[in-house]
Amino acid sequence: MTKWHAFRLGLAVALCISLNLYVDTFADSGEQTPNPLANEFAPEDLEFFEKKVRPLLANRCQKCHGEEEAEREAGLRLDSRKEMIAGGQSGPTIVPGKPEQSLLIESIHYGNTYEMPPDSKLSEHEIATLTRWVRIGAPWPAEIDTNKNTDHKAIANSQEQGRYWCWNPIQQQSPPDVNNLNWPRKNVDRFILRALEDRGLSPVPPANPYHWIRRVSFDLTGLPPTPEEVNDFVNDSSTEARERVVDRLLASPRFGEHWARYWMDLVRYGETKAFAQDYSIPFIYRYRDYLIRAYNEDVPYDKFIMEALAGDLLETPRMNPSDQSNESVMGPGFMYLTDGHHGPADIHADEARVFDTIIDTTSKAFTALTLSCCRCHNHKFDELTTSDYYSLYGVLASSRLDYANAVSPAILQQSEAQLKQQKELIKNELFKSLRQQIDALDLTDHTKLSKEWHALLYSKEKIATSHPLYPMVTILSAADDSQRQQLWNRLASAPAERVQDEVPESLTFKHWFPSGMAFANTPLKAGTFVLAPDGETIINAFVGGSIAAGEFSSRFSGSLKSPTFVLPEKLSLRVKGRQGHVRLYVQHYEMVGLGPTTTELDIAINNDQWHWVEFDTRLWKGKRGYLELLHNGQEMRFIAKQQHMAIHQDDSYLACNQVLLSQAPEVEETATYAATWQIRDEPPADLTTAGAFFRDQLLQLLTRWESEILQSDEQDILESLCTAEGPLATALQSDHSLNALVQAYRETARGAPTPFYVRSMTDGHGEDEPIYIRGNPDAMSRTATPRHFLEAIDGEAFTGSGSGRKEWAAALVDRDNPLVSRVEVNRIWYRLFGRGIVETVDNFGEKGAAPSHPELLDYLAIDFMKNGWSRKSMIRKLVLSNTYQMSTKGSAAAAEIDPDNIFLQHMNVRRIPAEAIRDAILATSGSLNDQMYGPSVPVNLNQTQPSRARPDKSGPLDGDARRTVYQEMRRNYLPPLLLVFDLPQAAVAAGQRGVTNVPAQSLALLNDPFVVEQAGLWANRILQDKQRSTEDRIHSIHHTAFSRPATDREIDRSKRMLSALAQEHQLDEKETAINEQVWKDFCHMMFNRKEFIFLQ
Amino acid sequence: MNTGLTRRELLQKTSMGFGAIALSDMLRTGQVASGSTPALAGPRPSHFEPKAQSVIFLYMDGGISQVDSFDPKPQLEKDSGKEPPFKTDPTVFNNQGGLLPSPWKFKRHGQSGQQISSLFPHLGSCADELCIIRSMTAFLPDHPNANYALHSGFAVRGLPSMGAWVSYGLGSLNKNLPSFVVIHGGQTPPGGMTTFGNGFLPAQHQGSIFLNKQPTLRNLQRHEPSASLQATKIDYLKEFDQEYVGTEGTDREIEAAISNYELAFRMQMAVPEVMDLSQESKATKQLYGLDSNHDSVKSYGTQCLLARRMVERGVRFVELTIAKQPGVDRWDQHNNLKESHPKNALAVDQPIAGLIKDLKCRGLLDSTLLVFTSEFGRTPFAQGKNGRDHNPQGFSMWLAGGGIRGGTVYGATDEYGYRAIENKLSVNDLHANILHLLGIDHTKLTYQYSSRDFRLTDVGGRVIPEILL
Prior knowledge:
The structure holds 2 protein chains of 2 kinds.
Chain A: H1 3-17, H2 43-60, H3 81-86, H4 103-108, H5 124-135, H6 154-158, H7 187-198, H8 209-221, H9 227-234, H10 241-251, H11 253-266, H12 285-296, H13 301-310, H14 347-367, H15 386-397, E1 399-405, H16 409-440, H17 446-456, E2 458-459, E3 462-463, H18 470-476, H19 481-493, E4 513-516, E5 529-531, E6 539-542, E7 547-549, E8 558-561, E9 565-566, E10 570-586, E11 602-616, E12 624-630, E13 653-660, H20 687-706, H21 712-722, H22 729-733, H23 736-751, E14 757-763, E15 769-772, E16 780-785, H24 791-794, H25 805-813, H26 820-833, H27 854-866, H28 871-879, H29 882-885, H30 892-897, E17 910-911, H31 914-925, H32 976-980, H33 999-1007, H34 1009-1024, H35 1030-1042, H36 1048-1064, H37 1069-1072, H38 1076-1088, H39 1090-1093, E18 1094-1095
Helix pairs in contact in A: 2-5, 8-10, 11-12, 13-25, 16-20, 16-23, 17-18, 18-19, 26-27, 26-28, 31-34, 34-38, 36-38
Chain B: H1 7-13, H2 16-28, E1 54-59, H3 74-78, E2 96-99, E3 106-109, E4 114-117, H4 121-124, E5 130-136, H5 143-152, H6 162-170, E6 180-184, E7 208-211, H7 227-247, H8 252-275, H9 282-287, H10 295-312, E8 317-320, H11 337-361, E9 368-373, E10 377-378, E11 381-383, E12 390-391, E13 395-401, E14 408-410, E15 412-413, E16 420-422, H12 427-437, E17 446-449, E18 452-455
Parallel strand pairs in B: 1-8, 1-9, 5-14, 6-7, 6-8
Antiparallel strand pairs in B: 2-11, 3-4, 5-13, 9-13, 10-12, 15-16, 17-18
Helix pairs in contact in B: 1-2, 7-8, 10-11
């Protein structure tokens, strides 16, 4: 067991006393490394070392633990005695004289921490040799101090000079001089032209206007231009014609639908968790909608990044202009887009897997770096270290997934304030009414007491002596005075003290983290009650003295999360509530409530009585975890079996007043509320006296309630009277003025908006993570890595108290960061020109490609930042350049000099992406439904394979004719038509799509029922106007499908084709012109023409 | 134009050793010049003389129990019901019972005397062909991860399946059929279809999913009522497209897309031909169990027979998934072990034995490698009363055919059959041997992705001379 482990277990013991103990850091326990023994050895021992040990170490150990720093594993050297004593990331390797304490010896025995050497175990003889060597004090000849720096963190600093280009600061660039001064239109053009002129090339003439408008329409919106748009442009002879088109496209809502999808590729957007069951991620489509809005509003890219990593932490979040809802909080939604696995046997390894994919995605998406390589070792090529990796790991481990209610906080606060006022009025009226009711109670009506009141006390057909009303009811309904006195005396002398349910100071919730408006982390005032949202009862429950949600309305939703703690064997909470949930997240395991062992990590709370719920955590003892109280738990499911259907329930509330890091206490069945009722001293002489006594007690309780000094057991008595079947519950209902106030309150409550749940994050306390040696969660380094940004850029430790997400994001968008702006402009360039300036858009590291136009890249990066990180203005600039206008017909010289067209002598022919193919089919057939946002259209299951993850119901074949971005993306059932055209698998960040050419694409366009169906719809539309000529129809088809009129040859060929089809269908000439089947076949082939999917 | 694989990328992505070979081959067929990845690339030379041309991967989805099939453990009888006397790792269900002896008897078969349980009487008759490995291990004890690892060498989703690597490495021997075919029995493995994906390899290497019912392959069925109507349509389409290429210069991508239509058209013919069993003799069909009273045998028998037909026609890698049987959840017997393991065994036993015999008598066994394995085994102790949980620590699998030393046993588990203790094998080792038999050095079959050279065998893989001829 490593020291770190031991420390954590120690902590677990401490936490059994107090959950509040806030875990600052899993710091080193401070133990000293052993002093090396005197370095003088007998000659025969040194000979033994030279003959037996040194060759063994050299052959079997030093390849990975030798002199070469780049090759070295775990920072450990086994080519020096001193280094072996000092040790690597796991501590000292040998303790001279003590083989049993030496990690080296444990490892070669294939012990708990390591199995070394990993390729195969040493022979018994070799093990004996090394054991003997350690036992005799690890003799080694005197060493020369090489004074080599073994600190892996020093790598970055040691490479200041001659750094790979991507780490160099972005340089201010002036557009270069060019010979052909007439050609450039934008500065961009001068960079391109200069590179061409340097190679003796000149740019080709512009594309014809039809090609240009088709190109720019697909590039900006993923849709073809309509025939009207084409005509408008072609007939617009003004100098601003192109500007007008570009501005129209940038302002179109279709822009965001197209460009958001690129971002979705990067964050591996899918709506399910893959693996065996492919569970759904409820409400994740709201993240997609957020992206579409963010692109359409042109949210500055630096802000976009701040929102992605820390949208929940921004002081002034960005509000949706239309309904004032919180947009920023939705930014971290991409953190959920991981594969999730139900019931992993090793939950920490699962966390490491999930975080690895988040780190990989984050580092690729924002910085085009492969930080994921550093899970096991320092990067082999780039200036990235394990310390960088586990730093980001620590940031993630200090954060929590969270459902946020995005409804405008202003609206909610206003409505809460109103309800608060109304509740005060209700309270006044309630006290008044109760006083009257109590005064009016006939506490000597023996029959009523023994019949109606007595019935309350039964639980499981047995009198529950622990019922709060038991002392009063049992005494008042006694058969005679002598029995009454006996009962009194027994109650007065019985184990008098009920255990007080007050939250012990040590278990207060003050270090817990509330999210949303539902919970405060301080207990509510004594006597606080929850009003029923409808029905006969007025009060649903009392929650005073506890941490509770739902005091005013369930629509002010949220959750409360504990600090991270080390799990004991059992964990219990005392709770009450409706539609509430308590969840335990072990090592951030998200899929609570699913899977064989992890089902019990989610407990539903649906009981108005205080009760204990218990987590059996034996399996995860010693792991890290945190608790979460969820107000509207049914609706706030992170993961659901299939499509999530939960509907907001207005009666939900949740209260908790104790958390124990142990088993739930045995319920004390026999304890009574006698002491609370002040039953002591002499018994009352008769029923009348007794009645008066209890009336007085009730009135005193009421007074104490009014003064807010109620104890929790007193509150129990009032609750039994006033809620559910309580004797005064219906009486309250009959009080008209009270009732009117309650109805008004309910009205106001119903006026508040129901929660709009979005996926976000919250912070826990900042916790540093140790390095996992070789990526193994069971082998951690001695000390934790202080959380910091990439050392190669700025390795200063974060000082804030939170997770560090905000600091990480701020470091990303720092203008001195050499990567972020370059990476983003490069991606924009790639999407418009078909090839990045850095061709490997997701890898700016040494294994990636070097920039083809480095000055242009820096020029654009600076220009991007200067223009407020506006993506739209960057796109506008690029598509209005002369470079973008060029035709795709390259010259023969260019084919010779630059066959891959790296220097853009002409534009590249590009195939449109999968989504654009499907959308263009819908647009062309005239059936495109441009409804935006909302739940995705379920996947169509036609021709898909059965599996346990297959949804029960199939979506429509045409996906409701909505754009592809609104089609459901189930990871195990991605739409086949899109996959065949290179939709990414939603497994890893994909800033660049493959463009393959496979026969399955031809088969899809030839035979896929969707394509065939759309051809039929198109043909119907073409034939609607019976008077049109065939030629006119052919023109119209070409206009719609290819954004241009048909050529004479095409008219001729089309006519021939129609006749040939008519012959196939055995039709005469006259019928042909109006035959649906013929036109359907014709339209079908238009979808199959290469011009339909390739851009010129 | 950004293509799947340009010439420069190809040089960059493939390691020099193998890249050079594949490249020369592609240059020869003129495919690289187009800058496009060939749709169905022709055969490519291997690193050294291959023993096998094709692989049939018999995937026993769910986790077959080693102590009930190929790894007899008499000690379980002796200690029946006792608590396991060894340290156990966390299991998926955490419902550990006592040691559970096998309900089935083991018998020696053939000249080699291989021990096989009574679950597999037909396989027993092929015992001398089998090399049983009793020391197989998996990375993780859960289905999807172990399944991804078995298929791709990595316990995560989204990396290329071994069939895709084989297709990428060796190309196809039949230009009308894909080189990696999955004959889907009706039960998609946990982890979904990405199990058969191409990952970062070019798309033509992904597993093509064939069903043994219509339509065999997605969108393969011509939607036009007659072939002549479709031909007419495609003829005119070609006319339109050729004019387009003419006006637009010579974009190779567009040309490749055009030629794909011819290929697609041919596939529409070739696939029904390979799926048509009407020319197979009655004896052959009987051999595979197609006359069985059990639907499950008929169904898997059909898959096996189709696998042979594909191998005959040059498909490189054929994977068979198992069928769904009522009330049986794959080989995943957390309970109902005694009822469901026999049903699973029944379904595959005769068809696989038939396949081995048929391949042998046609002279194809020497060039066809058969791989029979699950993603992991099962615990020798009970889960509940009549079940076993997942066990990645040691389990059995077998290899047969092309280049494999039949009638042998390799490796061993401890006396209870829980942990591999002798000649432990990982999925990386398995893959190294499969590639080796196909003539590929597993360390040289690489593809550059995300700043590193990826291999099917990751950083592991060991070729094991003892199991090879």
